[in-house]
What we know:
Blueprint: E1 7-13, H1 20-30, E2 38-39, E3 42-43, H2 48-59, H3 65-80, E4 84-91, H4 93-98, H5 103-121, E5 124-132, H6 137-148, E6 155-161, H7 173-181, E7 185-190, H8 196-205, E8 210-213, H9 221-230, E9 233-236, H10 238-243, H11 255-260, E10 264-267, H12 279-290, H13 294-307, H14 312-320
Parallel strand pairs: 1-4, 4-5, 5-6, 6-7, 7-8, 8-9, 9-10
Antiparallel strand pairs: 2-3
Helix pairs in contact: 3-5, 6-7
Amino acid sequence: MTARIRKAELHCHIEGAASPALVRAQARKYNEDVSGFISGDSYVWSDFTEFLVAYDGAASLFRSEEDYALLARTYLEGIAAENAIYAEIFVSPDHAAAAGLSPAAYFDGLAEGIAAAKASTGIECRMIIVGVRHLGADKVEAAARLASSRPHPLITGFGMAGEERFGKVADYARAFDIARDAGLGITIHAGELAGPESVRDALDHIRPARIGHGVRASEDDALVQRIADSGVVLEVCPGSNLALNVYPDISSHPFDRLRRAGVKVTLSSDDPPHFASSIGREYQMAADAWGYDAAQLTAITRTSIEAAFVDEPTRAILLGQLD
């Protein structure tokens, strides 16, 4: 049933979307060894720290515009085959720099892949520059300044990813002020590995339009009500939460409780091959776990498109595809 549902994804890290098969091909291209974090057709890690090692190891094998064009096109054509009509990808200039790539080359390569996927499938995509929290406030502010310079027309948002338990949210407030002043959409990872206080701090200090994950807010009823009343949208990634042991099983996951409490929730896959997921699997899990029908699943897609960091004419076209 979910195969026919139009889908949209707001929370996917592009380097984290590289399949093990694609990373193996890149490793052959550059004569590198990936046995430390890939076994067979799967990434290998046991906790969040090891996941970051695997993530960075895979990311280090994308070193040219051509590589990033291939990555973006492969990811977008894959989710278009699952009936996705829109995606936003988190892009990290810090990962590009570590691979020896300039920001301009990085964005141009990604944009080439986005254009190729749109030509072949019709899918729309935009980029959100993210600062990496555990690299420190100065690095995140530098990413915000880069984003605020609007280095590519497909860059429409700014966010922060990385180790959520590093530092204090208030330390990064200036970076978000810079991005907001430039007219960029604002999102921030919070309430995943850290508890409801992480979400509360994000609301207090960052004033985001969206929060990446945010599910730990469910542990505080007053906070849930605040999110619902404010209209802040949660980019929820159930498969990721289960893989990282935030919740033991899908029946324990708070997605449906948050939705019923009036919170605007969306579905995304985060770093899909690392978590044996995809946007199609996320929609299917939601349907299986909570009995959502086609209308309810389409309403989740509608929430995503209404919350997307995209120009209004494009938003209207996307919403028209849901009718």
